[in-house]
Amino acid sequence: MKVVVNDTAHEVSAKTLAALIDELGYSGARIATALNGRFVPKATRDETPLEEGAQIEIVAPMQGG
Q1: Is position 65 within any domain?
Q2: Does residue 8 lie in a domain region?
Q3: pLDDT (tens digit, 9 = 90+) per residue, 5-61?
Q4: How do beta strands 55-59 and 2-5 pair?
Q5: Domain with 17 in it
Q6: Cross-strand pairs, 16
Q7: Which positions carry the signal peptide feature in this UniProt record (predicted)?
Q8: Number of structural domains, the chain?
Q9: 29 found inside a domain
């Protein structure tokens, strides 16, 4: 299925947000996620389904001051 991650189109086989994170190599990283403009907590990524054309944002926290 085709999804857009951080404004870049991807062809993926993942069916859930958690599976997408693994497929794209983000597993183990401290990240925040949003699906179609809505924040998705880490605890619910396994049960968050993806659909064709989904817009996903994956961001890592920044350090600094």
Answers
A1: no
A2: yes
A3: 999 999 999 999 999 999 999 998 899 999 999 999 999 999 999 999 999 999 987
A4: parallel
A5: 2-59
A6: 49
A7: none
A8: 1
A9: yes
